[in-house]
From TrEMBL:
CDD domains: SDR_e. SUPFAM superfamilies: NAD(P)-binding Rossmann-fold domains. The lineage of its organism: Bacteria, Pseudomonadati, Pseudomonadota, Alphaproteobacteria, Rhodobacterales. This is NAD(P)-dependent oxidoreductase. Residues 3-199 form the NAD-dependent epimerase/dehydratase domain. Pfam families: Epimerase. InterPro entries: Epimerase_deHydtase (IPR001509), NAD(P)-bd_dom_sf (IPR036291).
Length: 297
């Protein structure tokens, strides 16, 4: 597929873009900073500029397309990861403006130029635990996609609004638009430093309900989304199968969430940010469990 990927130079994108390219997709990276990955051209553009987004939707994906005489053409799909990626990087109003208007501009330009497959990066922060003020309990565990998301911060709010924007454009156009509630992204080089301390101090992962997503497994998830048609608007938790700490859920729930009810039984190490939907609907099978990455299983 010819894929326009926004934000491919970011922490997640710089692993997802190579994964898609390796799967044979023709990817154009749209970002404010070039990725410079072999075989993946960069288009420097600003998602908050609607005109630039309309222009980008029919850009040449690769330089050789200028040779075939077919002119500009829409992409087969858009993957939208570009954003201010967390709280406290920019002032709250700027985080909200860039993320909300940037996503509106990307989706509007895509559907109005005839692109019928759009994947957007939402966030686990929409569940209202991660960036909330003070220690906040979720209403129920595990966190699944039908949860009444209620963030109180500018970043989580922007992602909630983006899901509503995506749903509205899907109703209007009939395009497939899938929103990925992406968990804490772990790059390959981070395993050796992030995971070992959690055996003694799992509480540092409480705000993300102990979950994680390997950046390469996120690449698989995006590829599966590109290949799956006909789902309309969907939200998927994008995370690995298990928690990121060695303690069992019995211990974690008793220690950190003693007042939170369970909607169903959970396995001993099953991720409390559930990926059941993406496994059942898209066939996701994780390849990078943290224990295996550290040679522990």
């Amino acid at each position: 597929m010819r894929v326009l990927f926004t934000g491919g130079t970011g922490k997640a994108g710089r692993h997802v873009v190579p994964w898609l390219a390796a799967k044979g997709h023709r990817v154009l990276n749209l970002d404010k900073v070039p990725l410079r990955h072999p075989g993946v051209p960069d288009l420097i553009a600003d998602i908050t500029d609607s005109g630039q987004m309309f222009n980008a939707m029919q850009a040449y994906a690769h330089g050789d397309e200028i040779e075939d005489g077919r002119g500009h053409r829409p992409f087969d799909a858009v993957v939208h990861f570009a954003a201010i990626p967390a709280l406290n990087i920019a002032p709250d109003n700027e985080t909200y403006r860039v993320n909300v208007m940037g996503t509106y501009n990307v989706i509007e330009a895509a559907v109005k130029t005839g692109i019928a497959k759009i994947i957007i990066a939402s966030s686990e922060t929409t569940y209202g635990v991660c960036f909330s003020d003070g220690v906040v309990d979720p209403k129920v565990l595990p966190l699944e996609e039908d949860y009444d998301i209620d963030p109180m911060d500018s970043y989580g709010m922007s992602k909630k609004v983006n899901e509503a924007t995506a749903r509205s454009f899907q109703r209007r156009t009939g395009a497939d638009i899938y929103a990925l509630r992406i968990g804490n992204v772990i790059e390959p080089h981070e395993y050796a430093t992030v995971f070992p301390p959690l055996a003694a101090d799992p509480g540092r992962r409480r705000r993300i309900t102990f979950s994680y997503i390997d950046a390469r497994d996120l690449g698989q998830i995006v590829d599966l989304c590109l290949k799956k048609d006909g789902l309309g608007f969907q939200v998927f938790n994008a995370c690995n199968d298990c928690n990121s700490v060695p303690q069992t859920n019995e211990e974690l729930l008793k220690r950190f969430f003693p007042n939170v009810p369970l909607s169903r039984p959970v396995g001993p190490h099953e991720s409390l940010l559930s990926n059941r939907k993406i496994r059942e609907m898209l066939g996701f099978r994780e390849q990078h469990d943290w224990r295996r990455e550290l040679g522990q299983g």
